[in-house]
Design goal:
The chain is mainly beta. The chain has 7 helices and 37 strands. Pfam families: Aha1_N, AHSA1, GSDH.
């Protein structure tokens, strides 16, 4: 489809997605490799999700695309004398699988492509398959992808280099868009759109109506606040609004760096919002009417969000839906946990001594049968801890501490929880039992607290008195705080863990302030080690310096949301990166992990960050993920129920929605869905 800007013939757009799919299928199926009796080849392009466009903007012809590819490949392994005419002999084997490329984009460098390799019928005899695909097939794919931009331009650029008033020759139908001066107001124009609409610039734009609906596990009031509170908006859009004059009729907003803009026109708290809404790529001055309804089920506090856009330009239906799903729906669910019940998502990873850094391009993915059973529903659950009697304490970010009996599936409330700063990612966070809980009944909680300048993390301990279905916290004492507070409500972290020696570990986020992670005058962006009463551990690497430095075990962390010990007594940590660059780190005393000076990802505005390889003085991650998995928790499995998992780590991923187990140095396997904060039950 070739689209013309009615006000400026220099702005022309052509959708070449169909041609690109055929081109890739033809080019990529020519890729093959043979080594040591193993042959591999790409068989076909299974799917291509996304759009490929060629555009002319003010006389400059460019191509813009960002697609996800899934390829199918086959491999032959010859274990005896090779019979080339038959392709294999009686001792030969065949294997097949898929290669997923999450992002093939116009601006992706050759060394930036990420691959997820899936081998069907996985067993030890297929190890040569993985090695050949990684060593010989993936480099050829990288080379092939670098040729996509010139191929697209050579084939299609000529179609849109034309003068005003002419129509380029192509096999793609043109969308009819008229300037106001060229339309006879008394006549009707036949188009494929549901109607037409005049923008503020005077253009008549063919428009249509699109709808969508999504279920969230939270109440309507929470969702209404998410769309109207500037701190919450900053949290799920990953940056403060470019412009926000208030959630009121006439209130202006510009989000995502100006890529989304509009104006509030109606608000009925907590059920309905109406906005003038547009994407920056739409014709100048053209707005749709976006209506959002929050329909709450009062039985279980599940809310269905219904949206309707009236006045979407024809040809912009898919970009509108895609952007809404990725940058609104998914981001809101992963930021605030509105998409989870008790059981959610994890990754599994086997940890080996001296494991080197592993990018997601090395990951192997394979589905495994696994059953997870929901116990009960929660409103934004964030963490849990098993009590000696088998019951479970569960934190809800809004400030409730629940107690659950898995046997009866009953749920009660623990009173005495302090007030929390519930905004953005803030609220009630982690819960942990004192190592001698059976004797002293002391529990620890972490949470965001309000104060001068905004909110910061805090850790308190209290005595827990239990009844049949509920309980009470008493003698609550705050033993640790972030040394400063900030607005925005982001990146508190504050996971709690007791070490084998009974010391308390706290993963301290940098509350979106970045630079404090490198400062020794603050405890933001650090791994903290304390005695159980909150005083600094005397064996900390900076203990002799006193003050806040005495608390610090390591520094240079962004948003560390998971920590646990392995059988060798080593501490492991996972933390969220920005746009890419989630990390798994082996924590060493006094080590600096580099944030925000180095990272394997990028800033949300696209600015690059030097990689760890450029600064060997910083500790590099043992594994990292591009794209992100949004790691929210970590345990090293020590139970007996899954014997083959012992020593493995379970890493929860808020956005990845799968579980992977690392079986050896190069293999990751999809397993199942479990809680966003994993722990091993008493049963193993």
């Amino acid at each position: 489809m070739v689209l013309h800007n009615p006000n400026n013939w220099h702005w022309v757009n052509k959708d070449v997605s169909g041609w690109t799919r055929e081109y890739l299928d033809k080019q990529l199926t020519q890729i093959s490799a043979e080594r040591d009796g193993v042959t591999a080849k790409i068989d076909k392009v299974v799917s291509m999700d996304g759009d490929v466009d060629v555009s002319q903007r003010k006389g400059k012809v460019i191509t813009i695309f960002d697609v996800k590819l899934k390829l199918e490949y086959s491999v032959a392994l010859f274990l005896g004398e090779l019979t080339r005419s038959a392709g294999k002999n009686k001792e030969g084997e065949e294997a097949s699988g898929t290669i997923t490329v999450p992002e093939v984009a116009h601006d992706t460098e050759e060394d930036e492509y990420v691959f997820e390799v899936d081998v069907y019928s996985e067993d030890s005899s297929k190890q040569p398959v993985k090695e050949l695909v990684r060593s010989d097939i993936l480099p050829q794919l990288r080379k092939a992808f670098t040729q996509l931009v010139p191929a697209v331009m050579a084939e299609h650029a000529k179609d849109i280099q034309h003068a005003p008033g002419t129509n380029p020759s192509s096999n793609f139908p043109s969308a009819k868009v008229y300037s106001s001066s060229s339309v006879n107001k008394s006549s009707s124009s036949k188009t494929e759109a549901t109607g037409s609409q005049q923008s503020s610039s005077g253009a008549i734009v063919n428009v249509t109506t699109i709808t969508d609906s999504t279920e969230f596990r939270t109440d309507a009031a929470n969702l209404f606040q998410t769309f109207t509170d500037p701190q919450r908006i900053a949290a799920f859009t990953r940056a403060p609004p470019k412009n926000f004059t208030g959630a009121k009729p006439g209130g202006i907003f510009e989000l995502f760096g100006g890529n989304v803009s509009g104006e509030f026109t109606e608000l009925e708290e907590p059920t309905h919002i109406v906005q003038k809404w547009r994407l920056a790529q739409w014709p100048a001055g053209h707005y749709s009417t976006l209506s959002i309804w929050f329909d709450q089920n009062d039985v279980d506090a599940v809310t269905v969000m219904r949206v309707e856009w009236k006045g979407v330009p024809v040809g912009q239906e898919e970009p509108t839906k895609t952007n809404w799903d990725q940058y609104y729906v998914r981001s809101i669910k992963t930021t605030f946990g509105f998409g989870t019940v008790f059981l959610s998502v994890t990754y599994a990873l086997a940890l080996t001594t001296g494991v080197s850094a592993v990018s997601s391009q090395h990951l192997v993915s394979r589905q495994q049968p696994f059953k997870s059973t929901a116990i009960t529903d929660f409103a934004e659950p964030w963490a849990f801890a098993f009590l000696p009697d088998g019951r479970i304490l569960v934190t809800e970010r809004k400030g409730s501490l629940r107690i659950v009996d898995p046997g009866t599936k009953s749920k009660g409330t623990i009173t005495g929880v302090p007030a929390v700063a519930y905004a953005g990612q803030g609220g009630l966070h982690d819960v942990a039992l004192h190592p001698q809980y059976a004797e002293n009944s002391i529990v620890y909680i972490s949470y965001a607290e309000s104060g001068s300048g905004g909110a910061g993390g805090a850790v308190a301990r209290a005595k827990l008195t239990l009844t049949a279905g509920s309980g009470t916290l008493s003698d609550l004492e705050i033993i640790w705080r972030h040394s400063q507070k900030a607005s925005g409500g982001l990146q508190f972290a504050c996971r709690l863990l007791f070490g084998p020696d009974g010391t308390l570990w706290i993963s301290s986020g940098e509350i979106n302030q970045m630079t404090p992670a490198q400062s020794m005058t603050t405890n933001l962006g650090k791994m903290i080690r304390l005695y159980d009463n909150g005083t600094a551990f005397e064996g900390n690497p900076f203990a002799s310096q006193g003050n806040v430095q005495a608390q610090i075990w390591s520094l240079g962390h962004r948003n560390p949301l998971g920590i646990d010990w392995d059988a060798q007594g080593r501490l492991w940590e996972v933390e969220m990166g920005p746009m890419g660059g989630d990390e798994l780190n082996l924590i060493q005393p006094g080590a600096n992990y580099g944030w925000p000076l180095v990272c394997e990802g990028k800033h949300y505005d696209g600015r690059t960050i030097p990689k760890h390889s450029t600064r060997p003085d910083f500790a590099a991650p043992k594994a990292f993920w591009v794209p992100v998995i949004s790691p929210a928790g970590l345990i090293i499995y020590k139970g007996d129920l899954f014997a083959s998992w012992k020593g493995n780590a379970l890493i929860t991923g808020l956005s990845s929605q799968s579980i992977r187990r690392k079986c050896n140095a190069s293999q990751w396997v999809n397993e199942c869905a479990v809680s966003e904060k994993t722990k091993t039950a008493p049963s193993g």
